[in-house]
Amino acid sequence: MIEAGFLKKLLDKANVEWVPLEKVTLPTSNIKWSDTDRTYQYIDLSSVDRETGIISETNEITRDTAPSRAQKLVQTDDLIFATTRPAQQRFCLISPEWSGEVASTGYCVLRPDPSKVSPGWLLHWIGSAQFKTYVEEQQSGSAYPAISDGKVKAFNVPIPCPENPKKSLAIQGEIVRILDAFTELTAELTAELTARKKQYNYFRNQLLTFKDGEMDLKALGQVCEFKNGFAFKSKLFRGEGRPIIRITNVSGGTIQLDGVKYFNPADYKENTEAYAISKGDILVAMSGATTGKIGYYPHENTAYLNQRVGKFLPNPDSLNNRYLYHFLLSQNQQIYTLAGGGAQPNLSSNALKAKLKIPIPHPDDPKRSLEEQIRIACILDKMDTLTNSLSEGFPREIALRNQQYQYYRDLLLSFAKPEVAT
Fold this sequence. Notes:
alpha+beta, four-stranded antiparallel β-sheet, 11 helices, 19% strand, globular
């Protein structure tokens, strides 16, 4: 436990200066696509897991396939913070694995000046309650709230003992060491979670691979219909009512209802019920930063498809819904490729139905085929629950450890502001 007065004792009457982030970070640079022909991993807004703070799925891009937002070069110990929907606090430190790759312009890249501040110091402050309150006050826009890089870098952080950089870094380091100790178990759980995700991907690929003669590749359109969304008007969005699932809500895996917008059917002459979705439906983002991402809707309440979000309607006589879901997750890169990449990726339902091929086991025996699909889906569902469920498995344990960490983080970062300093 942290003793009362720990922070005061650690500072030992040292001065504390509050300075904007821009004063303790270094300049960064954008990629020059005309000068390179290598392949990069693209860290888009859905690549960083909000719960674990790690980079998971990325897409391979080149100068010919890079979307317009793929611009920011990152290096080890950079901190990236999502400036779109900033109150969600999607951020992480860049590990050596991702050094030299390209991040979306939807991130603000903070590169710590090692002579003034440690990467861990910035990481804990960007995750703090103080910073969250700040971005909520500074963000603009209702449909797609955002904050500029300049405003992120204007956030003030405390620098203890600024006149003595060596002592300052030592004080920072001690606080970071304690907070890191609280996150050590979380890191171990996160590493285990990453391993389980790799295991899930491996077994998924194995289970979806059949011997010759045991399956038939069918164009998705042969066994599945497709429903496009409706153009709900942003000016008619409401704070309550019936939820609208937009492309920003489909970021891969289970669809959460954080940040959804709502509508009232009375505002439209069209039959909005034709665009309803229910528990179990599988969705896909057709454009934007989340193009090609697959989402599973797990909620009891009915929601509604916005434009550029599609819903899969498998033929129940030949295709199991959960089997389809796991197959689509395995095709992330292929679906992204079908969208064309480039500055404005755009996925069409015709391309999905015609060019995406799904393996159908035992095609000449529909009953046996569905039984095999269900068997495969059940195995993968169990692994998916352990890997991704927020009420069971590793994500739940990680969430509990994060609550403990957040309490002590806010306690140890409770520096007096200048106006109340004594």
